[in-house]
Amino acid sequence: MSDPDTALVAALLRHLDPDDVLTTPGDVEPYRSDATGLRAARPPAAVAVPRSVEQVRAVARVASAHRVPLVARGAGTGLSGGATAPADGIVLSTEALCGIRIDPDDQVAVVGPGAITDHVDVAAREHGLMYAPDPASSQTSTIGGNIATNAGGLRCVKYGVTRESVLALDVVLADGTLLRTGHRSVKGVTGYDLVGLIVGSEGTLGIVVGATLRLLPAPTVVRTLVVSVPSLPDAGRAVGVVTGSGVRPSTVELLNRATLENIDTHSGTDFVARHGGGLVLVRTDGPGADAEIAVLADALSAAGLPAQVLDDAEGERYYELRRTGRGRRDHMWSVGEDVAVPRSALVPVLEAIEEIGRRFDVEVSAVAHAGDGNLHPGLSVLRRPGESVPPARLGEAADALVRAALAHGGTLSGEHGVGSAKRPWLEDELGSEQLALQRAIKALLDPAGILAPDGFLARDDAGPAGHAGRRRSVRS
Fold it and tell me: What is the rounded radius of gyration, in angstroms, for the C-alpha atoms of the chain?
């Protein structure tokens, strides 16, 4: 360890227990990246695991005093490189700040950033309530990570993304200042919406140390239907029928044949035999769930897309397989994308995805929160023996896919965030004026630029592992 690193660690140890300051390569390694595998050339000097808000403030003050980068990290389930450990800097793990307190009268949860998403929902359901955001990683992802990326999930077509469920935040700024934003009350319009600014900022503006979350009555009735579709355009047509029916479903998911094959291989199912070219999964919930699912089934049948209404057990099985049924394929180079488009552009973009697969000779899997136009296409090519980097055509196909979404009025990220993996396209979407304004806001809150300096607002577009060389998980 170099002398500057020694001084930095010594400063951290004045505020944290020695067991909560990790410096050995074996201890640090698990914190170096998120699910993308992207990492800086050198490891961080230390991983700090604070156990109180005051300790978080102390870590921020140490980083500020030593002018070293500081990156907050939850469970590392992110899919954009937003939690990549900074070389020679500090990773601040929020894993120990995991408290959960439910107030059933106000229908809120007050939680630490390290609270696991599913744990919050389970605690809420003990009081007949639920935490609505439902990312596929909810069994392992943390509330702090969800807030950082404004995560969505399977239920967001009805209940919205994370931002709609965050009422207030406690945030530690780069200099250690504790900022309390938002309101515990359901309504509140005093001043600028700093909660909305922090949600989705990917740790570039401050470190979330507490969140007051909106809870909703848990539905007692949930109904599920599936419709088999021979092609991606047919799947898009089915989604259009559902979203245009007048019913507001809680879930509208799309899975193409390659995705069904992956689930069959990984989970031992027979989805390809049952559904062929693809599947659309739809759920309704609440007191009107039975009537709503019947309306949807009739509308799909009238459009020549017969639907099968599932019983409760089978509905839960399909839902869980959509969330967790796929597996990694280590013999493939894979890029998992996250784009969102207006609903009217869903079919044209799905057709563009198929054309991109043919043009660049890459395998395309398509899984999507299709009810709100959020697509998660996966692009894959065979990994040849001895090959250390993916072929260029994989990065070229990813570039074409993102540009197709932008050309149809979409966005380069619907819920995973930008991080370092998608930074090369940021100015294409925002434009130089808006990007400059966002950097100015960061400079106001973090004048030394120590918070997530390699994140989406960095000026260097190379990223920690380069753009063309990224290899990302396709689970979304």
Answer: 22
